[in-house]
Amino acid sequence: MFGRSIPLFRLAGFQVGIDWSWLILAVLITWTLSSGVFPYYYPDLTLGVYWSMGAIAALGLFASIVLHELAHSLVARRYHVPIRGIILFIFGGVAEMEREPDRPGVEFRIAIAGPIASFLIGLACWLLARGAVSVGAGVAVVGVLAYLASINVIVAVFNLVPAFPLDGGRMLRAALWHWKGSLRWATRVASTIGGGFGILLIVLGVWRVVIGDFVGGMWWFLIGLFVRLAAQASYQHVVIREGLRGIPIRRIMTADPVAVPPGISVAQLIDDYVYRYHHKMLPVVEDGHLVGCVSMNDIKAVPRERWAATTISKIMQPCSAATAIAPDTDAMEALSVMSRTQNGRFLVVEGDRLVGVITLKDMLKFLSVKLDLEESEKVDLRFAGLGAQEDRLSPGLNRSGSS
To answer: Considering only the top CATH level, what class is 249-399?
Structure first.
């Protein structure tokens, strides 16, 4: 879903990080609160106090979103759904699940945990604000606590909208899944509602721009666009998962892959293999047995004048376990590994024998043909991020969560 995030700290065993886009949100929130919201509700304070209130409130919102996502993550861990980490980005936060829950009841519990946490945080901030007033605390303290109380309730209510991929949409999907027994059908219905809600937000944003609220309108427009695209992508992911589930890699892999013998020279390797096949790493096979791998880095370590006299056996390295996969591995599991490791090409190894190579392109071709034959609807793999992922993953051998 995201690019490389900035790791911040670990909380309850989960890595918390921020996407670069969150910095934009932090600045916007601080500026809006300091120059507009707090001066309107609490006049006659100094500029320094307003900016201090804005900065502290932004940090409080940061903590609130982290706790919202932590609630999702703790419940997911309780039901053995692995969480890759918690990431904050410009539209909020996400607990990145490595796979979807396998039962509707589990999905419902994971989804509802976030809004419950936000409601509880809002209640706690409201009680603290009441307590601050009773002990005569300053206006600045009461103002920040009142803001955090209200914003957490707003976050909870917004997330309860039954529009996928919001928490309410996930709860709706869980209920439909439980009713019909079909995750795909439930996702299609929830995603359709999510897409419609996204269009509503886009229209609202355009209307706000027309009446003069450019910043607010653009904000609603972007949120609506994100919700709509995320809803479409979420459905595509389910279609892809259903299409690849239960398919072993041996049915998709390229058998008899390009491999090099250990006795040829580096010069022969470059002329006959590297320039011809354009792979950045090649398996080295002798009598049908995988004996090593040779990469561009291994080649570069040899002076050019020694290429003709140096054999591959002298420079090859043991193949890393991260570059190999078993032929009976489920295709969906293999796709998850490719996404997690950013490696788009794996050796398929059985014992010490190389039986094939599997690439992301192979999987996409298989999926495209399978969906053409078996499905009545077209699936655009770009909505699931796989088209971009294919470009991003290395051609040599060498990341769905709750809103």
So the answer is: alpha beta
Beta-carbon contacts of 313 under 8 Å, excluding residues fewer than 6 positions away, are 262, 263, 284
Cβ atoms < 10 Å from Cβ of 157: 14
Q: What is the Cβ-side half-sphere exposure of residue 214, based on CA atoms within 13 angstroms? A: 0
Q: CA distances (Å), 231 to each of 174, 178, 274, in order?
A: 15, 20, 42
Token pair recorded at residue 287: 């009598």
CA–CA distance from 380 to each of 1, 236, 258, 377 (Å)?
Answer: 17, 7, 31, 10
Distance CA 198, CA 190 (A): 12
Query: What is the per-residue pLDDT across 49-80, written as a single tens digit (0 to 9) for each?
Result: 999 999 999 999 999 999 999 999 999 999 98
CA dist 106 and 78 (Å) reads 10
> What is the C-alpha to C-alpha distance for residues 388 and 3, in angstroms, rounded to an integer?
12
Would strands 92-97 and 83-89 be described as parallel, antiparallel, or unpaired?
antiparallel
Identify the bridge partners of residue 285 per DSSP, sorted by sequence position: 290
Cis peptide before 165 (omega within 30 of 0): yes
Query: What are 235-280's pLDDT values in tens digits?
Result: 887 877 777 878 888 888 888 888 899 999 999 999 998 888 888 8
CA gap 263, 314 in Å, rounded: 9
The ranges assigned to domains in the chain are 6-244, 249-399
Summarize pLDDT for 116-131 with one digit per residue, the tens: 999 999 999 999 999 9
Q: Which residues contact 80 (CB under 8 A, 6 or more apart)?
A: none
